[in-house]
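Exercise (ungraded).
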Amino acid sequence: MLTIKNLRAGIEGKEIIKGFNLEVKAGEVHAIMGPNGSGKSTLSNVLAGREDYIVSGGEVSFNGKNLLDMSPEVRAREGLFLAFQYPIEIPGVSNINFLKTAINEIRAYKGIGPMEAKDFLKLIKEKQALVELQGSLAGRSVNEGFSGGEKKRNEIFQMAVLEPTLAILDETDSGLDIDALRIVANGVNKLRSENRSFIVITHYQRLLDYIVPDFVHVLYDGVIVKSGGKELALELEEKGYDWIKKEVVEA
Amino acid sequence: MITAEKISSTDKLVSDFEAVKKTLPGNSFVQSIRQKAIESFSALGIPARENEEYKYSNVQKLFSEAVTLSVVEMTLSKISIDKYLIPNLDAHIIVLINGFLSEELSLLKNLEKSVVVSSLQKAFEKHSEFIERHFSTCADINSDAFIALNTAYASDGVFINVPDNTVVEKPIHIINIIAAKESTFFFPRNLFVVGKSAQVQLVETFETHDLPVKAISTSVTEIAINENAKVQYYRLQNDCGNGQQINTVSASQQKNSHFDTNTVTLSGGWVRNNLNIALNGENCESHLNGLFITSDTQHVDNHTLVDHRKPHCESNQTYKGILDGKSTGIFNGKIFVQRDAQKTNAYQSSKNILLSDDATINAKPQLEIYADDVKCSHGSSTGKIDEDALFYLRARGLGIESARKLLLHAFVNDVMQTIRINALRDYLETLIHKKLGE
């Protein structure tokens, strides 16, 4: 589904991702962990197509197509979804109106006509229940006045509505209390399927207690320095990142 | 006919007045006001750039181009006004051609019987008691050269009187049409008197019909709002390029009255709007909202003045601008809180988005407070479209154009929500959608 080969990227003339490789197959859940400043957020921004980030080398292939050639909206329409670390507040744009526009533009891209109003409302109702999002929140302006937890739930709600094939969760656990974390993780777990893959970017292991990954990778200074199964996350939790840093320095 | 006169300066306008004053309508009361007004205009003169109030709007240049003076009626009979109507708006229609009321084109169906709608010329004769009580009382001839000029030359316009305790059920839609074959000055003058506990919704639209040349309309509208009255006044300037306007609206509110205004400018080459509100009684509420979306070389200048003269009044102003091309926008909002106006609540906000590097906005909020127990605040911001929000929407699959449109619509949304006539709001949404899609 997603193949990243020797990706190099940065911002404002500073290279942050320095030869990154990853292969994500359909249905897999990959966790990318790493200390602050290792390049986790840069990676998610580059994959989503944020224009401030400059790709200086490497290849990214998404379902056989060159992802790096695509605008952010085309990436989304092709099935890529980024759950933002800091969801943006957009006063005056209602969640519902925004999602309706998004769905219909994605459908138009695929050559399908707009969704019927009643089908859309049914979809919204169903997906709201998935993340226990209050009906009134869906009608409000995008993220305006939402608490940290509500914002993250809204991200997962949007993901549920848009049904991407690859979802990148960028530190979705940050700023969540344990109840909100459980709700968000349950939402994600319900969306797991053999056709849908996830990249879960996180600093802490605790999210991975709820969203159990197939693979765990450790990102340090822009490259993956260690990969393993879910037990690697537990090891990191126990020993901290210094252990990895030491290994890298020694190697 | 005086239409062949060429004028280009303050002196010329003053001397021309001598020639035409006998032909202007009104009894000796009106004529004496005209005389005082021309003297005031002569003293004030067409404002120079040094004049702080006209710093960003070069009116001298506007008036230096030779144009014809028009104080006589021009009839446009048998034109269709269909294209100037607002879809689905069930309203009484008043049509003013170059400021002259056209009875032929106006349509007042089932208007409450006690309500008077007439041309100003007729009102000078038939409703002199109202004229003598209200004409030139809201708009001070000594405060502004264009109020003085209009008062001197005022040729026609619409007079509306809504008597005490009368609620006008349907909105009154005033369609201003400017039509001229040669460059011309116009001086439309309106007077609205709203009685105690009366209510009315007024919608004014500005249009042009076959205007191959430049026309300058210097209009004044006076609104006398009596105790407990509620007035909503919406202005939509959707003029085409050659219409140049200096509009002054001066309202005076008596106690417990409510006045809501919306000024929306979408097109029109050169527009200056002066909106003056005097709060002359306690417990008044005023809401001034404005929106301008400009492109090309458009020039839109909104000046507001809210004068809190009595205690316990509230005023709120929200003006928003979206500027593209080489257009210029100005917002100058002044709030006076006089010594007696304790417990005043006054709020003012001006927010603008620049879509191009060549567009300019000058926003200047001013507060002058002479009372000590008041709540006043103002804020102004100008920026580009929010790149983070734009990326967020695109990351959900919205194309860049629809994402931009959605954000711009969101930006104007709070002003749009203050328009309480649904058909008017829908019509504006359509116009705005079209304008932002250019």
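Further reading is listed at the end of the chapter. For now, observe: The CA atoms of residues 230 and 430 of chain B lie 28 Å apart. The interface with chain A takes residues 386, 388-389, 391-400, 402-403, 406-407, 409-411, 413-414 of chain B (CB under 8 Å).
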